[in-house]
Amino acid sequence: MRNSHEIWGRVDAISPDFTDLSDRIWDKPELAYDEFSAVTEHSAMLKAQGFRVTEGIAGIPTAVMGEYGEDGPVIAILGEYDALPGLSQAAGLARPSPLPGPGTGHGCGHNLLGASALLAATAVKDYLKAHGLKGRIRYYGCPAEEGGAAKTFLVREGAFTDVDAAISWHPSSFSGVNAPFSLANTRIDFTFEGKAAHAAAAPHLGRSALDAAELMNVGANYLREHMPQGARLHYAYIDAGGTAPNVVQSNVTIRYLIRSETLPELMELVERVRKIATGAAMMTETHVSEKVVSAVSNLMGNSPLEAAMHRNFENLGPPQFDDADRKVAAEFVATLTKEDKLAAYRRMGIPYDPDAVLCDLIAPPCAEGDMSAGSTDVGDVSWAVPTVQARGATCAIGTPLHSWQMTAQGKTAHAHKGMIHTAKIMAATALDALTDDMLLEQARAEHAARLAETPYICPLPATVKPPVRRKQAAT
To answer: CA 316, CA 73: separation in Å to the nearest integer?
Structure first.
């Protein structure tokens, strides 16, 4: 630690309760919109810490908001706690070892993400109370980031209308300000309806929905050559029509995930994919219908908030990992390829160090690294309010997100140190926004200028509702 800040001491003082929270969430991984155990844990912690709690925000049972303070600016810190399918893994073990059960695991570190965000919000709350300062700090427990677009629904329903700025983070190999780059995307289910028939005795009487889906894929493959740079098309069969090859398949559903660098580009690309689906239906004399499942916007940056966050990173310095942490991390690095590690350095624009196993630096701001990216529903929050994100070093360098290695490191000492370190950054940045009127004014001005150039259009049609469950899952 290069400098001292009262808020950092407050984070350290209460951190054990929040590392325990993170571990409890890790122990009960839940998929999108099914995070009933996680939201119960987060709600209980909010109440115990003295926040005013609103459960089921925007009609989503696994979303929660806690608020402290009166008057003044409203600063939101965003947490997540959903897991992923197929990434179950024993904690701390550097070899594949799935746990018994449904196979769900925290392969993206969201157990850490939510607990660290709540830790930061609580430290800010304690600071405001101790100093009698005006301002409101909010924690948003956000479900279903992994493909569920919950924050997009929250934005659409006005959950951030009175928020002045939002702060979030994501587990990573390195610590630093997150480059505000992600892909807008939408998920659409295309259902082809044809006519069943005996595939040998009367194939001429059938109209194959499976043929239509495959022709759609052919058309999409040709489209890939003519898409904007950075755009992506992915697909998966939700219902392939059956397993009997002697039947002409009459109903098939295929899900397309369409990504592009900006919202306007995404909208144009979606229309092109729709034309391909229509063409495939025409060629096979089938009928096609569609259902939008989810959609998110690309991230919008905010230079004033990013500069403030980077100053806090520079003042705090990198996480203080020790030899025991590096020994554990080295075991995980041994399971990775050189390309895994190189990719982590390229992404952050940092010169490659073949000997490093854990982060020992702060990534430069706005690094000109590899700008390949996925998608996040934080993007829609960034269009609604000025938003900044951190990257927090919680794993061995090169650990891919959405991997068993990421799951395995979710309860390690170095993961805990990384989440506490990032909580300090978020807490200090939130205090900057609460106490520096000029910072908020600059952040709002830049945000307004960007919106004036490209107005926000919610990528989710008004008719699409979150696929929520109303009954609590069994525990």
So the answer is: 25
